[in-house]
């Protein structure tokens, strides 16, 4: 089972897993005519989810993109964006990575969040995305419409898993309101599906590749069913932090953008970096479906997720996207 590995602990091959596992990644500001060199290194905390999506962060550390901007990182892992948003809002985290539904939910509750960089996109290819709805190989279900009346595992209730699965059900002509959702960590889903505890799972890489190896099969591609150009996640902070630290936020955004571009252009490097922070073999990393990474922020995709959140009853008031996105 994959666990999160700390960059400094990598030499000892010890995995760190679970919410609150703190990873100290200190990047010394040495050499180079970069933006942060003159003022030394400023350390910031970044909350993220230990999955494939955040590979660009680790590549950015490896390639020195954060160091070039005079930034040191402390990485804190959480199960999902719903756990990271409160940490950013409270100030215990400077920046967070999370899916856009989590960010929208926080903003709808009055949290003064501010998106500062793109995160990750779905592939836009049905049956070949990095998040899929999976069923057992011998399941009688043949389309997302068959999920009506069934139990589906998602990592966080009332979030992007629910809404995108419902989007698949609607696209297949089913009653999206008649699906039952169960909250479960990604690492536990495959066994729960095999045991019959749930009828389907909303699974993400690298656990998706493991599910396929276990004989489970794809029933639906929820991100593609939602919109082919779905920007799933972003990096964010608070408006207060952004207003008080505009130069630091700009440098963080620059480092993330460089990291996203590098990941997009170097898929082999992505596959090589994943086993350094997730305890999976290189052979499995080679089999993963990689998401799309680009620095571009797709406002339309966030609007689609906001509409789904409102339609599915996750929010009663649509958040101010201008305040969130700037």
UniProtKB/TrEMBL annotation:
Keyword Magnesium: no
GO cellular component term of the entry, any: periplasmic space
Claim: Signal is one of the keywords in the record: yes
Alphabetical list of Pfam families matching this protein: NMT1
SsuA/THI5-like domain span: 53-269
Localization: Periplasm
Keywords for the protein's UniProt record, in alphabetical order: Signal
Membership in a protein family: Belongs to the bacterial solute-binding protein SsuA/TauA family.
Record-linked PANTHER family: ALIPHATIC SULFONATES-BINDING PROTEIN-RELATED, TAURINE-BINDING PERIPLASMIC PROTEIN
Protein name stated in the entry: NitT/TauT family transport system substrate-binding protein
Classification lineage: Bacteria, Bacillati, Actinomycetota, Actinomycetes, Pseudonocardiales
């Amino acid at each position: 089972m994959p666990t999160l590995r700390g960059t400094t602990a990598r030499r000892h091959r010890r995995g760190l897993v679970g919410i609150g596992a703190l990873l100290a990644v200190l990047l010394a500001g040495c050499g180079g005519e970069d933006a942060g060199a003159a003022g030394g290194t400023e350390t910031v905390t970044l909350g993220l989810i230990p999955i494939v999506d955040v590979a660009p962060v680790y590549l950015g550390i490896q390639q020195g993109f954060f160091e070039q901007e005079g930034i040191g990182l402390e990485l804190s892992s959480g199960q999902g964006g719903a756990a990271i948003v409160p940490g950013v809002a409270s100030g215990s985290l400077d920046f967070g990575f999370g899916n856009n539904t989590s960010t929208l939910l926080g903003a709808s509750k009055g949290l003064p969040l501010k998106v500062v960089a793109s995160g990750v996109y779905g592939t836009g290819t049905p049956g070949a995305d990095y998040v899929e709805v999976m069923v057992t190989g011998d399941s009688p279900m043949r389309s997302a419409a068959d999920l009506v009346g069934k139990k589906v595992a998602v990592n966080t209730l009332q979030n992007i898993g629910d809404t995108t699965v419902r989007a698949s059900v609607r696209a297949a002509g089913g009653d999206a309101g008649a699906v039952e959702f169960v909250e479960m960590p990604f690492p536990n889903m495959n066994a729960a599906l095999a045991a019959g505890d749930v009828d389907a799972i909303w699974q993400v890489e690298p656990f998706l590749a493991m599910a396929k190896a276990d004989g489970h099969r794809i029933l639906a591609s929820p991100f593609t069913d939602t919109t082919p150009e779905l920007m799933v996640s972003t990096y964010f902070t608070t408006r207060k932090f952004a207003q008080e630290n505009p130069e630091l936020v700009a440098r963080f955004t620059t480092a993330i953008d460089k990291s996203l571009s590098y990941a997009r252009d170097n898929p082999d490097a992505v596959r090589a970096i994943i086993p350094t922070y997730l305890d999976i073999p290189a052979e499995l990393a080679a089999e993963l479906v990689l998401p799309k990474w680009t620095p571009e922020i797709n406002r339309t995709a966030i609007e689609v997720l906001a509409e789904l959140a409102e339609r599915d009853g996750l929010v009663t008031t649509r958040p101010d996207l201008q305040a969130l996105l700037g």
